[in-house]
From TrEMBL:
The chain crosses the membrane at residues 12-36, 76-103, 115-135, 141-158, 197-223, 243-264. It comes from Leucobacter coleopterorum. PANTHER family: OLIGOPEPTIDE TRANSPORT SYSTEM PERMEASE PROTEIN APPC, PEPTIDE ABC TRANSPORTER PERMEASE PROTEIN. Its main location: membrane. This is ABC transporter permease. Keywords: Cell membrane, Membrane, Transmembrane, Transmembrane helix, Transport. Belongs to the binding-protein-dependent transport system permease family. It is found in: Cell membrane. Pfam families: BPD_transp_1. Residues 76-265 form the ABC transmembrane type-1 domain. It is a multi-pass membrane protein. PROSITE patterns: ABC_TM1 (PS50928).
């Protein structure tokens, strides 16, 4: 297994290494933004309002004279943090429901399966907007809304995987050998079922960042003057004709980060690491 995993990582290919480099820079922006942008993302300077990109202000400034480069770098923590937290909720609860449906009685599996099918048919952003309407807006609400909206997808995928493994030959042999159900679950079913969630969660974080930004753009997530990328897009749309940089650079941050996570997740799934 170790040799196979090593060969798989050696075959990631240059697009995946580019994605890893982008994510490494993003991780620095999340954990230590002062290294990349030592300024204050909330500091205003009306005299520098709406300046175009220049050596002094790499991404230009906004309507209050705040440096957009500093705000984009510091905003990574908010956008990526919300995306990670929402994905953790979706994967965690989805795993519980997926195992329950895949290993539970037929009646429970049938009932949960129908629920998964109905909820999976609804677009995730529509479901998130529905939850936002119920629980209100804000960063915490965005985490809960997106996390809850992504549960059906993870649960449906895991349910199918669990049922296939539970009916496999090596699991049947373990049962015939007198291995306890708990040991069969912990040694055979759970490890082989959960690994595919790694690639799915990697893809899910990228999607969650886009949905978080969409909620912020609609004014339902983090609110100005927060440097969260979606909120920055919301602020910049008023000036899109005269200050294009206010929307282009936060939008590029969203696209590049989500694309890097998506490329890496798809590569991991293709190589069978997850």
């Amino acid at each position: 297994m170790q040799q196979k995993t090593s060969r798989s990582f050696n075959g990631l290919g240059w697009p995946s290494y580019v994605a890893l480099a982008i994510l490494a820079i993003t991780a620095v922006a999340v954990c230590a933004p002062q290294i990349l942008a030592p300024g204050n993302p909330l500091a205003i300077n009306p005299a520098d309002a709406l300046q175009s990109p220049s050596p002094v202000h790499l991404f230009g400034t906004d309507e209050s004279g705040r440096d957009l480069y500093t705000r984009v770098i510091h905003g990574a923590a908010a956008s990526l943090g919300i995306g990670l937290a929402a994905t953790a909720i979706g994967v965690g609860l989805g795993a519980i429901l997926g195992f329950t449906a895949g290993l539970g009685p037929k009646l429970v599996d049938s009932a949960l399966g129908r629920v998964f099918e109905v909820l999976f048919a609804l677009p995730t952003l529509v479901m998130a907007l529905l939850f936002i309407t119920i629980i209100g807006g804000g960063p915490t609400a965005s985490i809960l809304a997106i996390g809850l909206a992504t549960i059906p997808g993870y649960a449906r995928m895991l349910r199918s995987r669990v049922r296939g493994i539970a009916q496999s030959g090596y699991v049947e042999w373990a049962r015939l050998d007198g291995v306890s159900p708990l040991r069969v679950f912990t040694r055979h079913i759970a490890p082989n079922s959960l690994w595919p969630l790694v690639s799915a969660a990697t893809l899910g974080v990228g999607q969650a960042i886009v949905w978080v930004s969409a909620l912020g753009f609609l004014g339902l997530g983090a609110l100005p003057p927060s440097p969260e990328w979606g909120a920055m897009l919301n602020s910049g749309r008023t000036y899109i004709a005269t200050a294009w940089w206010m929307t282009v650079f936060p939008g590029l941050a969203i696209v590049v980060t989500a694309a890097a996570l998506t490329a890496l997740g798809r590569r991991l799934a293709k190589l069978g690491i997850a």
